[in-house]
Design goal:
Layout: H1 2-6, H2 8-20, H3 27-39, H4 48-55, H5 64-87, E1 93-94, E2 99-100, H6 107-121, H7 126-137
Antiparallel strand pairs: 1-2
């Protein structure tokens, strides 16, 4: 907010660039725009730093298809463990902390951010995979 007040001529174009990004935009262009926006303090749908880290951690000898399957299996694992985490005694709201003792309130954002970064690395549709995640977790 301070940066917007002191340098609106600089923040305006960056905000306009983030508004132009659509799911059809080339992934490299999108990541470049999100990297500039993140540096300026504008929240983005996909964290470019997380995408760079996840993209650079490929295991030796594994194919991109195997890495993609592992990413899908990670979401299945999280979806299957959600009921177990919800039943955990530490999953009670603590008014003193204004949250949960086991930080369960951070899980939704973590799932969205990590899955968005993972499927951006694999150049897949994030929304489709998150819908599948909801279907699996609802079972």
């Amino acid at each position: 907010q301070v940066f917007s007040q002191h340098c609106p001529f600089l923040m305006g174009p960056i905000e306009c660039l983030t508004d132009v990004v659509t799911p059809d935009t080339d992934i490299q262009v999108t990541l470049s725009i999100f990297e500039v926006a993140s540096a300026a303090g504008i929240p983005c749908e996909v964290d470019p730093a997380l995408v760079n880290v996840l993209g650079g951690t490929r295991t030796e000898g594994s194919s991109p298809e195997e890495d993609y399957k592992v990413s899908c299996l990670l979401l299945v694992f999280v979806a299957v463990t959600l009921p177990l985490m919800a039943a955990d005694p530490a999953s009670l709201y603590n008014p003193e902390l204004d949250g949960y003792n086991n930080n369960l309130h951070c899980l939704a954002r973590a799932i969205v951010q990590v899955s968005a970064a993972l499927f951006t690395v694999h150049n897949k549709n994030i929304e489709t995979h998150l819908k599948e995640f909801l279907l699996v977790s609802a079972l």
